[in-house]
Amino acid sequence: DVKVTQSSRYLVKRTGEKVFLECVQDMDHENMFWYRQDPGLGLRLIYFSYDVKMKEKGDIPEGYSVSREKKERFSLILESASTNQTSMYLCASEGATTDTQYFGPGTRLTVL
Amino acid sequence: AQSVTQLDSHVSVSEGTPVLLRCNYSSSYSPSLFWYVQHPNKGLQLLLKYTSAATLVKGINGFEAEFKKSETSFHLTKPSAHMSDAAEYFCVVIVFSGGYNKLIFGAGTRLAVHP
């Protein structure tokens, strides 16, 4: 089974703090994704990566950055957290030749 | 532009009765469509997918969906609801953009199942 893990299930941070969300997959997938999930909006793509050290902006990249130094790990960074970044963050991975994304359990981030 | 619309934000059924979760899509070409399910405090799990083969697609846990091009619909059904089906369900269309597959999610439908 594909396994996608996220470093924290719940996280509470203060406005202005730098926040790191980590995601690791164990299936040697080339593509990895970060989404945020908000009620009534479904999932929205923040950033994705199709290879090590490569990244592409999704639909809502503002206020976020990412890092992919190793194939199995994709990090989402909030340089200076703000209250409007309070949300559920979901990571996903996908093989280069498939169209099925596998999701982690999510990190619920609260910014006070 | 490709998009999906889930017509109900909440659906409530009794255990043992049929489930219908409605989804309409907008696509300028023959789309690939998915249904994902999210149980409380868990990640999204793929229920089923349509990729231009048979129009009636069977998924896990007894769910199925029918692709109807004339109605631009991809409704999810199950003959008999179980308590464990209570979850949030997302209809998804794939867009090929910039050389990559991009998932466009609907807003979600929360299914409640009552005894």
Characterise this structure.
The complex is a heterodimer of chains A (112) and B (115). Chain A has 112 residues and is mainly β. Chain A is 0% helix and 53% strand. Chain A has no helices and eleven strands. Chain A is globular. Chain B has 115 residues and is mainly β. The model of chain B has no long low-confidence stretch (mean pLDDT 91). Helix content of chain B is 0%, strand content 58%. In chain B, 34% of the residues are buried. The A-B interface holds A 4, 9, 31, 40-45, 48, 50, 56, 58, 90, 92, 94, 99-106 and B 9, 32, 36, 41-46, 49, 51, 90, 94, 98, 100-103, 105-108.
List keywords for this structure.
heterodimer, A: 112 residues, mainly beta, 7-stranded mixed sheet, 4-stranded antiparallel sheet, 53% strand, B: 115 residues, 6-stranded mixed sheet, 0% helix, 58% strand
In terms of topology, how is this protein built?
The complex is a heterodimer of chains A (112) and B (115).
Chain A: E1 4-6, E2 10-13, E3 19-25, E4 31-38, E5 42-49, E6 56-57, E7 65-70, E8 73-78, E9 87-94, E10 102-103, E11 107-111
Parallel strand pairs in A: 2-11
Antiparallel strand pairs in A: 1-3, 3-8, 4-5, 4-9, 5-6, 7-8, 9-10, 9-11
Chain B: E1 3-6, E2 10-14, E3 19-21, E4 23-26, E5 32-38, E6 44-50, E7 56-58, E8 64-68, E9 73-78, E10 87-97, E11 100-105, E12 109-114
